[in-house]
Amino acid sequence: MVALLALLFARQIFDAGMRVAGFARSEVKDELVSLRESVAQLQRENTKLRASTVAGERQLQIERAAQADLTKSLKLLQDENTKMKEDLAFLQSMMSNGHGQETVSIHRLKIEYGGLPGEYRYRLLVVQQGNREKDFHGRVQLLVNIVRAEQKNVLVLPAPNSDMVAAFQLNFKIYQRVEGIFQVPPGAVVKSVQARIYTNGAAQPKLVQSVNVS
Prior knowledge:
Largest sheet: 5 strands, antiparallel
Strand content: 25-35%
Order of helices and strands: HEEEEEEEE
Number of strands: 8
CATH architecture of the largest domain: Sandwich
Helix content: 40-55%
CATH topology of the largest domain: Immunoglobulin-like
Distance between the termini: 118 Å
Number of domains: 2
Structural class: alpha+beta
């Protein structure tokens, strides 16, 4: 009888334990499902945030590129405006000095660093003063003194038969602006530039002017 009672008691304990264990497994399962849903939600939000970040970075890059283009355009406009003001002032001066012997001179000879390595910009104004009864026909030549690896050299511009020849031709009555870009070999530094003005058919220059660069 005692054994039977003990067996019944043990069975009750076992059933109670199974019920408790089953309830615990149910809670764990529910908690696991909830955690999985939370993780999935976090992953979706993370994906959205990444997409938003990428879109924001692209927009920022576009805005920066637009700002850079605007700054460059503004700089070009300012430079052009400065040139026009200089030319206007000079033209007014020339118009008030239209008498006397015809002479040719160089004004505002400038050599500046360009936007790329080894790139330089040149600009000069060739002017005919005096009576100016006829147009001046000739050409400009630039002698570019460079130093490369402690060796001195001279570049002659324009080189014969190059695309630059036409840009150095002169044909004007009052003045002509000559400007453009030239490239020096890698590692070379421009020290000075000499501008020479020739009349057509002349072997010797009519005018020579130099400017130091560095």
